[in-house]
Amino acid sequence: MKKSRSEKRFDAYLDALCDVLGHADRGAGLRGYCSGLMMPLDRKSIEPLAAHLDPRHVRARHQSLHHFVAKSEWSDSAVLARARDWVVAQMDMREGTYWIVDDTAFRKKGRHSVGVARQYCGEIGKQDNCQAAVSVTLATAAGSIPIAWQLYLPQEWADDPARRQAAGVPPEVAFSTKPQISLAQLQQAVADGVVPGVVLADAAYGTNSEWRAGVAALGLRYSAGVVSSVIVWPPGVEPQPPAPWHGQGRPPVRHRRTADCQPMSVEALARSLPAQDWRTVQWREGSNTPLSSRFAALRVRPAQGDRLRDIEWLLIEWPQGDAGPLRYFLSNLPADTPIQSLVHTTKARWRIERDYLELKQEFGLDHYEGRGWRGFHHHASLCIATYGFLVSERLRGHAHQKKPSERPQPAVPEDYRPRGASPSRPAPYLPLHSDSALAIGSGDHDPLATRLV
Prior knowledge:
There is one protein chain. The protein is α+β, with helices and mostly antiparallel strands. The protein has two domains: about 5-205 and about 350-450, no CATH class; about 210-240 and about 260-340, no CATH class. It is about 35% helix and about 20% strand. It is built from 15 helices and twelve strands. Strands 1, 2, 3, 4, 5, 6, 7, 8, 9, 10, 11 and 12 form a twelve-stranded mixed sheet that branches. Helix 2 (about 25-35) crosses helix 14 (about 375-400). It is globular and about 80 Å long. The two termini are about 30 Å apart.
């Protein structure tokens, strides 16, 4: 049967991924695994993939796929980099570029899967037995793809030599907090020459003042959520300089506060603002109606820690009719940034929620059943790489469609709940193709390539 154009592009894409595996014999494993991830299967762990790829030789195919994913020494970061470059070639960077930092969890039973521990699980909005991974996503208004991915290794795992050895945790991997992991990922992205973007993150990262300082030290702009208790110096209020040093002990470094000179929490500041400081801003088209809310933006100086911090933006969202403010963000975007741009940039973080949703529901990101470090990262990188091809096809079709402002944008389902909220409903599985993993369509703008728009 004659292959369609998108099938030929998929073959070329897999060839490009195989080029970074380090050994020609690994190519068959990658092609089979990625082709299997395209199939409309309810479960995308190794065994069902093997059964559908080669029904007559399930055991042999299972063994070869397991070796490729769990044992073979190829670089998952190299595969992600090649997938990133393929997608970037289709991205239009003129309307803004973002680096979205986030983490996602996978519920697990038992205690032997690498990194599993009782920790926060966003899927259910509370503590549970799960694994968690930190990622950085490169995004534009039209598409996005994760470019970095690392398992979070809890302290109890990092300090347990027996569990580390059993799971194959590399010796150089020590305990790092999620903000520390993300900073290392951002640093690597800068070193790799990835097109820079505004770093977006939720309050789990933005509340950490050292994380914000680390992002700024990389020469990057950010807009990150913070919790309501974060304290700042309001506009026009400045701390007093440190007390004079009298020649004994260490010189004072903490800026002084007086009865008339005190920082305040961002919530208290929001509640003190007059009505004229609030504006209704629309940031994009939703699935049914334009998305808008009420915002205030002002220049403040964060008061966390001893040292005097730079003045930056505080963006506050307080929907009309709500009893209190909903969200707070700190941003080091330029001082002349209009409030519309602040809101538009900050709200671009929604794309990571959609990526996680599609990666789990469509490509089996959370279906890996192995226990080891290498297999966990290899499976995730192959899921992301396969997703990357569909993102590139969607972007290819997007270039021939109406401008984003002329048509509704994709939206996260209304009942999807991000970090800290109640769990989402299990979504129906949308088939990619009913007959073949590689039957991606019959023309240059195939339904599969554009279905995710």
